[in-house]
Amino acid sequence: MSAALIALAIGAFAIGTTEFVIVGLLPEVAADLAVSIPSAGLLVSGYALSVVVGAPLMTALGVHLPRKSALLGLMGVFVLGNVLCAVADDYALLMVGRAVAALCHGAFFGIGSVVAASLVPPHRQAGAIALMFSGLTLANVLGVPLGAFIGQEHGWRATFWVVGALGVLGALGVAALVPRQPRPEVGLRGELAAFTRPAVWLALLTTALGFGGVFASFTYLAPMMTELAGFAPGSVAWLLVLFGVGLCAGNFLGGRAADRALAPTTYAVLGLLALVLAAFTLTASAKVPAAVTVLLLGVVGFATVPPLQTRVLRAAEGAPSLASAANIAAFNLGNALGAWLSGLAIDAGLGYRAPNAVGALLVLAGLGVAALSGALDSRKPARVSGAEVPELRQSA
Question: N- to C-terminal Cα distance for the chain?
Fold first, then answer.
């Protein structure tokens, strides 16, 4: 069981690195391709929107395949996308490469979440998902700062060659360590039926709004820290390490807390995230307070991931694969929304402090949706085992 979860974390590490590394390279990419910082920031939005499209599409295409085979195919698409980024000589081709790499993202994390949850008892599902997502958090501690350093020293294209190699390593890990998975018992029609449940849609909307607040701020972290806090450009990599440390801690804490009390954990972490983002509008002007807030943003921001992903799995019990992938799409739809709204705020002359305010408002909206969902759930008759996802247990 642990070896399979580690293999999923390896794939998550590769995918997480390519998703987030562009944040540390925005100034270099913008200067090299002669585009503005907000335009370069659209490479984040473009990736996220491709995840939104690719998550349900790639999951639907692979719904009849054994899950291990589907994961290996997705890693192949990932490697292809990063090679396109590495050879890109203009902004358009770089965007295409980012979009291709992103096609595998949602399906990998969606299918991987189902596999992870199927390997443990129901009361440990959030923790298993958190362990898989630890690869994503470690990508921010190790992969993203190293990628930013490589890009600054050897050019940003070199970073994508390295990330492509990480994708090959991830595929080898999945091939060697993930046990053979049976074909899913629920077909595409059964997976689609989960979307007739209001609870699934409310959970997806909570994810999009709540996590969108994180990226509203994080997308513009590099210029925010250099322009407002006064950090040198070379310090951005270390701030990303600090943020990544926070992600690792938040992922662990969020998984443990969600296994004990899912709904209270969801409300608590979203409320704390809104407070941290609101505080960031004040602390972004000085080095030490800004650095501390970056750490806290990582902790609270990623503490939302295990409970938000587990909420969707439970809402879609019996047919979790497509809904799980759709929630990854919701994470990235929120990323795109947050980055876009913050870019509009910057272009409107509100400065690099504005993304934090935009993020706080998005998170508060997500908290409101979560509270509405909880109120509706409380009116339903209690089920015998609301924590267990039967199809997950059958496929273990």
Answer: 10
Residues 298-324 have pLDDT tens digits of 999 989 988 988 888 788 776 667 787
Q: Of 301, 334, 63, which Cα lies nearest the Cα of 186?
A: 63
| DSSP element (H, E) containing 329 | helix 320-347
Query: What's the predicted TM-score (pTM) here?
Result: 0.72
Q: Of 174, 165, 129, 109, whose CA–CA distance to 306 is shortest?
A: 129
CA–CA distance, 59 with 41 (Å, rounded to integer)? 27
> In this structure, are residues 36 and 29 in contact, taking their beta carbons and an 8 Å threshold?
no
DSSP secondary structure code for residue 226 in this structure: I
How are the residues of the chain apportioned to helix, strand and coil, as percentages rounded to the nearest 5?
85, 0, 15
Q: Which residue has the tokens 């959030």?
A: 126
CB-count burial class (<10 Å; 0-12, 13-18, 19+) for 192: middle
Question: pLDDT tens digits for 39-85?
Answer: 887 887 788 788 778 878 888 887 777 778 888 899 999 999 999 99
At position 379, the amino acid (one-letter code) is R
Q: How many CA atoms lie within 13 A of 271 on its CB side?
A: 7
